[in-house]
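fyi for ur records
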Amino acid sequence: MAEALIRAENVNLQRRHKQVLQNISLSLQAGQIVTLIGPNGCGKSTLIRVLLGLEKPDTGAIIRRKGLKIGYMPQQLRLEPRLPITVTGFLSLARGGSRRHIDSWLERLGISALRNQDIQDLSGGEWQRVLLARALLQEPDLLVLDEPVQGVDVQGQSELYQLIPQLRNELGCGVLMVSHDLHLVMAATDEVICMNGHICCSGHPDHVSGSEAYLELFGQRPVPIAPYTHHHDHHHGIDGHIEAGAECQCDGHDHAAPSTHQSHS
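which gave:
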Protein backbone atom coordinates (compact mmCIF):
# COMPACT_ATOMS: atom_id res chain seq x y z
CA MET A 1 0.00 0.00 0.00
CA ALA A 2 1.20 3.51 -0.82
CA GLU A 3 2.39 5.71 2.00
CA ALA A 4 -0.48 7.59 3.63
CA LEU A 5 -0.61 11.36 3.21
CA ILE A 6 -1.36 11.73 6.91
CA ARG A 7 -1.98 9.39 9.85
CA ALA A 8 -3.19 9.79 13.40
CA GLU A 9 -2.20 7.14 15.90
CA ASN A 10 -4.01 6.86 19.26
CA VAL A 11 -4.50 10.61 19.61
CA ASN A 12 -5.89 11.92 22.90
CA LEU A 13 -6.62 15.50 23.92
CA GLN A 14 -8.15 16.89 27.09
CA ARG A 15 -9.39 20.43 27.77
CA ARG A 16 -10.46 21.67 31.20
CA HIS A 17 -10.77 18.10 32.43
CA LYS A 18 -12.99 17.16 29.46
CA GLN A 19 -11.80 14.45 27.10
CA VAL A 20 -12.21 16.07 23.68
CA LEU A 21 -10.42 13.41 21.60
CA GLN A 22 -10.08 9.83 22.75
CA ASN A 23 -7.90 7.19 21.07
CA ILE A 24 -8.32 8.60 17.55
CA SER A 25 -6.57 6.64 14.80
CA LEU A 26 -7.08 7.24 11.09
CA SER A 27 -5.20 7.51 7.80
CA LEU A 28 -5.83 9.19 4.47
CA GLN A 29 -4.42 8.20 1.10
CA ALA A 30 -3.85 10.25 -2.06
CA GLY A 31 -7.00 10.27 -4.18
CA GLN A 32 -9.24 9.44 -1.21
CA ILE A 33 -12.10 11.60 0.09
CA VAL A 34 -12.75 11.15 3.81
CA THR A 35 -15.50 12.98 5.68
CA LEU A 36 -15.71 13.52 9.43
CA ILE A 37 -19.28 13.77 10.68
CA GLY A 38 -20.82 14.14 14.10
CA PRO A 39 -22.87 16.48 16.30
CA ASN A 40 -21.74 19.92 17.41
CA GLY A 41 -18.94 19.74 19.95
CA CYS A 42 -17.95 16.19 19.04
CA GLY A 43 -14.31 17.13 18.29
CA LYS A 44 -14.31 17.31 14.48
CA SER A 45 -12.70 20.73 14.13
CA THR A 46 -10.34 20.03 17.03
CA LEU A 47 -9.14 16.89 15.28
CA ILE A 48 -8.56 18.92 12.10
CA ARG A 49 -6.44 21.38 14.07
CA VAL A 50 -4.41 18.55 15.55
CA LEU A 51 -3.88 16.94 12.14
CA LEU A 52 -2.72 20.30 10.73
CA GLY A 53 -0.28 20.82 13.59
CA LEU A 54 -2.16 23.87 14.90
CA GLU A 55 -2.75 22.11 18.21
CA LYS A 56 -0.75 19.40 19.99
CA PRO A 57 -2.34 16.23 21.33
CA ASP A 58 -1.67 15.17 24.90
CA THR A 59 -0.69 11.70 23.72
CA GLY A 60 -0.46 9.93 20.41
CA ALA A 61 1.20 10.90 17.15
CA ILE A 62 0.48 12.60 13.83
CA ILE A 63 2.59 11.34 10.92
CA ARG A 64 2.61 13.40 7.72
CA ARG A 65 4.21 12.32 4.46
CA LYS A 66 7.49 14.11 3.89
CA GLY A 67 6.99 17.32 1.90
CA LEU A 68 3.21 17.16 2.26
CA LYS A 69 1.48 20.30 0.93
CA ILE A 70 -1.84 21.08 2.60
CA GLY A 71 -4.53 23.45 1.40
CA TYR A 72 -6.80 24.40 4.30
CA MET A 73 -10.25 25.96 4.11
CA PRO A 74 -11.15 26.92 7.70
CA GLN A 75 -14.65 26.93 9.09
CA GLN A 76 -14.30 30.65 9.76
CA LEU A 77 -11.72 33.27 8.91
CA ARG A 78 -12.41 36.65 10.42
CA LEU A 79 -10.68 39.70 8.97
CA GLU A 80 -10.51 43.26 10.18
CA PRO A 81 -13.83 44.70 8.93
CA ARG A 82 -12.22 48.02 8.02
CA LEU A 83 -9.57 46.34 5.87
CA PRO A 84 -10.01 47.62 2.29
CA ILE A 85 -8.99 44.66 0.16
CA THR A 86 -10.37 43.03 -2.97
CA VAL A 87 -10.73 39.33 -3.64
CA THR A 88 -7.62 39.39 -5.83
CA GLY A 89 -5.69 41.33 -3.19
CA PHE A 90 -6.70 38.85 -0.51
CA LEU A 91 -5.74 35.83 -2.60
CA SER A 92 -2.41 37.39 -3.57
CA LEU A 93 -1.40 37.18 0.10
CA ALA A 94 -1.54 33.38 -0.05
CA ARG A 95 1.45 31.24 -0.95
CA GLY A 96 1.22 30.50 -4.65
CA GLY A 97 -0.97 33.57 -5.14
CA SER A 98 0.39 34.76 -8.48
CA ARG A 99 -2.05 36.67 -10.68
CA ARG A 100 -2.04 33.84 -13.23
CA HIS A 101 -2.89 31.20 -10.63
CA ILE A 102 -5.50 33.42 -8.98
CA ASP A 103 -7.25 34.08 -12.30
CA SER A 104 -7.11 30.38 -13.16
CA TRP A 105 -8.77 29.25 -9.91
CA LEU A 106 -11.36 32.02 -9.91
CA GLU A 107 -12.37 30.90 -13.38
CA ARG A 108 -12.33 27.22 -12.40
CA LEU A 109 -14.64 27.92 -9.46
CA GLY A 110 -16.94 30.12 -11.53
CA ILE A 111 -16.31 33.29 -9.52
CA SER A 112 -14.25 35.39 -11.93
CA ALA A 113 -16.87 38.14 -11.60
CA LEU A 114 -15.79 38.63 -7.98
CA ARG A 115 -12.16 39.38 -8.90
CA ASN A 116 -12.27 43.10 -8.06
CA GLN A 117 -15.00 42.99 -5.44
CA ASP A 118 -14.25 44.09 -1.89
CA ILE A 119 -14.18 41.08 0.40
CA GLN A 120 -16.43 42.86 2.90
CA ASP A 121 -19.19 42.94 0.29
CA LEU A 122 -19.21 39.20 -0.39
CA SER A 123 -22.13 37.00 0.57
CA GLY A 124 -21.50 34.00 2.79
CA GLY A 125 -21.52 31.64 -0.17
CA GLU A 126 -19.17 33.84 -2.20
CA TRP A 127 -16.75 34.07 0.73
CA GLN A 128 -16.71 30.28 1.00
CA ARG A 129 -15.73 30.01 -2.68
CA VAL A 130 -12.94 32.55 -2.18
CA LEU A 131 -11.63 30.55 0.80
CA LEU A 132 -11.70 27.41 -1.36
CA ALA A 133 -9.70 29.22 -4.06
CA ARG A 134 -7.19 30.25 -1.37
CA ALA A 135 -6.76 26.61 -0.33
CA LEU A 136 -6.35 25.46 -3.94
CA LEU A 137 -3.63 28.02 -4.62
CA GLN A 138 -1.36 25.83 -2.49
CA GLU A 139 -1.56 23.09 -5.17
CA PRO A 140 -2.20 20.75 -2.25
CA ASP A 141 -1.48 17.06 -1.85
CA LEU A 142 -4.13 17.19 0.87
CA LEU A 143 -7.18 19.48 0.74
CA VAL A 144 -8.77 20.06 4.16
CA LEU A 145 -12.29 21.54 4.17
CA ASP A 146 -13.86 22.40 7.52
CA GLU A 147 -17.63 22.83 7.02
CA PRO A 148 -17.21 24.08 3.41
CA VAL A 149 -20.93 24.73 2.80
CA GLN A 150 -21.52 27.23 5.61
CA GLY A 151 -23.65 30.11 4.34
CA VAL A 152 -24.37 28.32 1.05
CA ASP A 153 -27.90 27.63 -0.22
CA VAL A 154 -29.08 24.13 -1.16
CA GLN A 155 -28.26 24.51 -4.85
CA GLY A 156 -24.79 25.82 -3.99
CA GLN A 157 -24.22 22.94 -1.59
CA SER A 158 -25.07 20.42 -4.29
CA GLU A 159 -22.73 22.10 -6.78
CA LEU A 160 -19.90 22.25 -4.28
CA TYR A 161 -20.18 18.58 -3.36
CA GLN A 162 -20.18 17.69 -7.05
CA LEU A 163 -17.08 19.86 -7.54
CA ILE A 164 -14.97 18.28 -4.79
CA PRO A 165 -14.47 14.88 -6.51
CA GLN A 166 -13.60 16.75 -9.71
CA LEU A 167 -10.92 18.73 -7.89
CA ARG A 168 -9.63 15.51 -6.32
CA ASN A 169 -9.29 13.97 -9.78
CA GLU A 170 -7.66 17.05 -11.30
CA LEU A 171 -5.10 17.49 -8.51
CA GLY A 172 -4.67 13.85 -7.55
CA CYS A 173 -4.94 14.97 -3.94
CA GLY A 174 -6.57 13.53 -0.88
CA VAL A 175 -9.53 15.39 0.62
CA LEU A 176 -10.50 15.56 4.29
CA MET A 177 -13.88 17.21 4.93
CA VAL A 178 -15.84 18.07 8.04
CA SER A 179 -19.63 18.09 7.95
CA HIS A 180 -22.57 17.85 10.32
CA ASP A 181 -24.68 15.73 8.04
CA LEU A 182 -23.99 12.55 6.16
CA HIS A 183 -26.89 13.11 3.75
CA LEU A 184 -25.06 16.08 2.20
CA VAL A 185 -21.86 14.20 1.45
CA MET A 186 -22.90 10.63 0.66
CA ALA A 187 -22.25 10.92 -3.07
CA ALA A 188 -19.00 12.84 -2.70
CA THR A 189 -17.03 10.79 -0.20
CA ASP A 190 -15.24 7.44 -0.17
CA GLU A 191 -15.13 6.96 3.58
CA VAL A 192 -17.07 8.45 6.48
CA ILE A 193 -15.75 8.66 10.02
CA CYS A 194 -18.49 9.23 12.57
CA MET A 195 -17.20 10.97 15.70
CA ASN A 196 -18.42 11.82 19.15
CA GLY A 197 -15.15 12.45 20.98
CA HIS A 198 -14.01 9.04 19.78
CA ILE A 199 -14.56 7.22 16.49
CA CYS A 200 -18.00 5.63 16.75
CA CYS A 201 -17.93 3.97 13.34
CA SER A 202 -16.25 4.35 9.96
CA GLY A 203 -16.51 3.01 6.44
CA HIS A 204 -18.45 3.56 3.22
CA PRO A 205 -21.35 6.05 3.60
CA ASP A 206 -23.97 3.35 2.94
CA HIS A 207 -22.47 1.19 5.69
CA VAL A 208 -22.16 4.02 8.20
CA SER A 209 -25.69 5.32 7.61
CA GLY A 210 -27.13 1.98 8.69
CA SER A 211 -24.93 1.44 11.71
CA GLU A 212 -26.27 1.53 15.26
CA ALA A 213 -23.73 4.22 16.22
CA TYR A 214 -24.96 6.55 13.46
CA LEU A 215 -28.62 5.97 14.30
CA GLU A 216 -27.92 6.60 17.97
CA LEU A 217 -26.29 9.96 17.20
CA PHE A 218 -28.62 11.21 14.46
CA GLY A 219 -31.85 9.38 15.14
CA GLN A 220 -32.63 8.24 11.60
CA ARG A 221 -31.08 7.20 8.32
CA PRO A 222 -29.97 10.12 6.11
CA VAL A 223 -32.25 11.14 3.25
CA PRO A 224 -30.30 12.43 0.24
CA ILE A 225 -31.10 16.00 -0.77
CA ALA A 226 -32.50 16.40 -4.27
CA PRO A 227 -30.75 19.40 -5.87
CA TYR A 228 -32.90 22.49 -6.36
CA THR A 229 -33.33 22.82 -10.10
CA HIS A 230 -35.17 24.97 -12.57
CA HIS A 231 -35.16 25.22 -16.32
CA HIS A 232 -33.85 28.28 -18.12
CA ASP A 233 -31.79 29.25 -21.14
CA HIS A 234 -28.72 30.49 -19.30
CA HIS A 235 -26.10 29.27 -16.84
CA HIS A 236 -25.36 30.33 -13.28
CA GLY A 237 -21.79 30.43 -11.99
CA ILE A 238 -21.11 28.50 -8.80
CA ASP A 239 -21.53 31.78 -6.89
CA GLY A 240 -25.07 32.12 -8.22
CA HIS A 241 -24.40 34.95 -10.68
CA ILE A 242 -25.83 34.71 -14.18
CA GLU A 243 -22.92 34.42 -16.55
CA ALA A 244 -22.31 37.22 -19.03
CA GLY A 245 -24.49 37.33 -22.11
CA ALA A 246 -27.52 35.63 -20.61
CA GLU A 247 -30.67 36.88 -18.94
CA CYS A 248 -32.92 34.92 -16.65
CA GLN A 249 -36.28 34.11 -18.20
CA CYS A 250 -37.59 31.93 -15.37
CA ASP A 251 -41.32 32.42 -14.79
CA GLY A 252 -41.21 31.09 -11.25
CA HIS A 253 -43.43 28.09 -12.10
CA ASP A 254 -40.81 25.65 -13.31
CA HIS A 255 -39.02 24.98 -10.07
CA ALA A 256 -38.50 21.63 -8.40
CA ALA A 257 -38.54 21.87 -4.63
CA PRO A 258 -35.67 20.10 -2.86
CA SER A 259 -36.29 17.23 -0.54
CA THR A 260 -35.02 18.02 2.93
CA HIS A 261 -33.69 16.23 5.96
CA GLN A 262 -33.73 17.58 9.46
CA SER A 263 -30.46 16.83 11.19
CA HIS A 264 -30.48 15.83 14.82
CA SER A 265 -26.97 17.14 15.37
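The chain has one domain: 30-55+68-256. thats all i got for now
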